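Render this sequence as a predicted structure.
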Amino acid sequence: MSDEVALNDPKTLPLSFTLPVVGAAGGFFGLFVGTAQGSTLLGIVVAAAVCAGLAYLAMVVMGVPQERTFKWGVRALFAVLGFLVGALPGLVVGLLFGWFIGWFIYWIGRARYRMTLPPYLTSGQVLWEYTFRVLCGAIFVFLITPILVVMPLSFNAENFFTFTPGMLAFDPEAYSLKHYRDFFTSSEWQQALRNSLLIAPVATLLAVSFGTLAAIGLSSEHVPFRQAIMAILISPMIVPLIISAAGMYFFYSRIGLQGTYLGVVLAHAALGIPFVIITVTATLVGFDRSLTRASANLGANPVRTFFKVQMPLILPGVISGGLFAFITSFDEVVVVLFVGSANQQTLPWQMFTGLREQISPTILAVATILVAISIMLLTTVEILRRRSEKLRGMSPG
C-alpha cells in the first residue's frame, strides 16, 4: 500500500493522532524498563520513539494486508530485545509487550476502538469511556496484585518471603512444593484446618437458617419497624469488626461462652447472617406471593408451603448467602482471637500466629489454597445468581 492510499483510507486515522497515542503507550511501558535499567528518561524516550516508528511502518508502509506478518514481527522484535536486556524473564515480558503493541497500533490506527461504541458518541465521550475503563482496570490491578504476588511465592524453594534470583530467572530448582508439603504434614496446620472445618459449616448452617427466616419475615409489609429491624440484623457487616469482637468478648465472658466451641460458632453465625439476609431479600424481590396464597387455598400448611413453593424459588439466593457466610467464617480471624481459645485455633488464627511469631513461609501456601477456594465459591455464587435471574425472568438467556 502506498503512502497516499494509506493516508486517504477512511478507516485509517491521521498519523498526527496515531503516532502520539502509540508513542505515549510505548513511553508508559518504557518508564518501567528504563527505571529497572537505571535511566527512566532514556527508557521513556526510546520506547516512545520505537513504538511511534512501528506505528508509521504499520499504517503507511505495510498496511492491513500485512497485518498478521507485522504483528508477528513486532512480537519477535520485542522478545529478542527483552532477552538481551533481561534474559528469559525479559523474553517473556518482551513477548507480551510485543503482542500488545502490535494489536494496539492497528486498534488505534484503524479506529477499531470505535467498533464497540455507539457511532453517535463525540470524541470527548469516547475519551471518557476509555478513561473510565482504564481507571477500573487500574483499580482491579491494584486489588489483585497482592494475590498474584503471593501465588508464585508459595512455590519458593527457599524459606523466604521474596523472589529469589533463581525464581526471577525461571530456574526449575528455585521452585518447590515444600511449603505445601509442610502444610499437609504439620500437625499444627492440620489441627487448625480441622477446627475451621468444624466451625465454618455449623456457623453457616445457623446463619442460613436464621437469615432466611428473617429475610422472609422482613419481606412482609405487615411487619412493624421493618427498616429498624433490618438495620440491626445487618449491623455486624457495618460495625467495625474489632468493636463487634470486643463486645462479644465481654458478653460471652458473662454468660460462660468465652473460649468455647459454641461461642465461636455463634459469633461466626452472627457475622454471616447479614449476607444471607441481603441475598435472600434480593431474591424475594421478584417472588410472586400469589403462589403462597394458592398453596394455602389448596390446604398446605405454612411449613409445607415454605419447602415446596418458596424454597425452590429462593434457593439460589439462599445458597449464595450460605457461601458468603461460609467464606466469612472460614477466613475470619479477629473475632476468634477474642472469643476463642487455643482449642479453637482456626486456620486464619494459625496464619496470624505464623506471621507474628514464626515467620513461616507455609503461610503463603495456605493463602494460595484459601484464594483458590474463594475463587471456586465465588464462581458458584455467580452461576447461582444468573440462574436466579433466569428463574425470575430477569435475564433473556
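Summary. Residues 1-8 have pLDDT under 50 and may be disordered. Residues 215 and 376 are 26 Å apart (CA to CA).
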